[in-house]
Amino acid sequence: MSGKVASYLVTGASSGLGLEFVKQLAARKSDSVDVVHVSVQPAEGNLITILEDIDVTKDECKGMLIEKLSNTNCTKIDVVIHNAGGMGTTSKESQSLDNVTSELMLNTVNLNGIGPLRVQQALLSKGLMGVEGGKIVVITSGLGSIGDNGSGGMYAYRSSKALVNMVTKGMSCDLKSKGIAVMSINPSFVATEFGGFGPDKIKDVGGMAPEKSIKQMIQAIDELSLETTGRYMTVDKDGDVPIEYAAGW
Ligand SMILES: NC(=O)c1ccc[n+]([C@@H]2O[C@H](COP(=O)([O-])OP(=O)(O)OC[C@H]3O[C@@H](n4cnc5c(N)ncnc54)[C@H](OP(=O)(O)O)[C@@H]3O)[C@@H](O)[C@H]2O)c1
Fold first, then answer.
1. Which domain of life is it from (predicted)?
2. Of 54, 224, 237, 239, which sits with the fewest C-beta atoms within 10 Å of its C-beta?
3. Which of 137, 219, 146 has its CA nearest to residue 175?
4. How far apart are the first and last CA of the chain?
5. β-strands 135-139, 181-186: how paired?
């Protein structure tokens, strides 16, 4: 997107990966950044629009998002980054085969699996991705890969990300003819507020800095095209460039 003004919509930008996305995107002088659900100060020379109180677990978020966007200067979004999400609980034990409840399954699937679908439906219904073009990026997790599940557990979170992987793949098929490229990407294990353990604790057990993860994810987004739509990528924790997710969907 370098060389022209691009408009990004990032969900869940009040902390962790979303916040770092906004910081790094805002630092690119030629881009404008539109952000859902965030509380950061605008960087000099860039436009950051903060749309607060949009809860992606509720159908009402669709109307709210459109209404709030209509009160901004943003008429076309080039890149949507579906990042809002969470583990669902603060303990792995509550997501075991013995313990996981229907309520926890439904709540987590509603957030991580259906949240991105709601936001995307709202944007598409109002033609906000433009007549042709644009990119949709879904922040998934390696735990959502069925091919990579060799250890079980984490039923709610794994299922929610497996669902969003299917939604992502589906959108890549449905939107190709509209010129919209779609990708899933695993951010790797990153020191954020994810799971409520605290970034320091995640760092202590090998979590990477958000700065490194986001740098690679932005590269993957820049490189995404209609030729590569439907890709499942991952941040390479041992390297500097994003790679294809080897285990696949
Ligand atoms: N960190 C990791 O190691 C890791 C690994 C794989 C995948 N991921 C994925 O990366 C994404 C970002 O997570 P993170 O690590 O940056 O965690 P985080 O620091 O907890 O950030 C989560 C963000 O999502 C927002 N959010 C949560 N529920 C929401 C809702 N109902 N409506 C709108 N926004 C909501 C949060 O906002 P509020 O707190 O203001 O509600 C926050 O801004 C998630 O999808 C997560 O599953 C993370």
1. Eukaryota
2. 239
3. 137
4. 27
5. parallel
Tally of domains within the chain: 1
Q: Which atom of ligand 1 is nearest to the CA of 18?
A: 16
The whole-angstrom separation of Cα 57 and Cα 29 is 33
* Token pair in block for residue 137: 């990026």
Residue 152 maps to a domain: yes
Give the count of alpha carbons within 13 A of 147, CB side only: 7
Pick the more confident residue, 131 or 85: 85
Quickly tell me which residue has 């583990």 as its tokens: 87
107 lines ligand 1 (CB under 6 A): no
Please give the pLDDT value at position 37: 44
Residue 146 lies in a domain: yes
- 190 Cβ below 6 A of ligand 1: yes
Pocket of ligand 1 contains residue 25 by CB under 6 Å: no
**Domain CATH for 162:** 3.40.50.720
For residue 240, give its domain range. 7-244
In a domain, 1, yes or no: no
Which residues, 6 or more positions from 194, have their beta carbon under 8 angstroms from its beta carbon? Answer: 16, 86, 87, 202
Q: Side chain identity at 159, as an amino acid letter?
A: S
DSSP state of 93: G
Of 15, 40, 111, 197, which is best to mutate to test ligand 1, by the most ligand atoms within 8 angstroms of its C-beta? 15
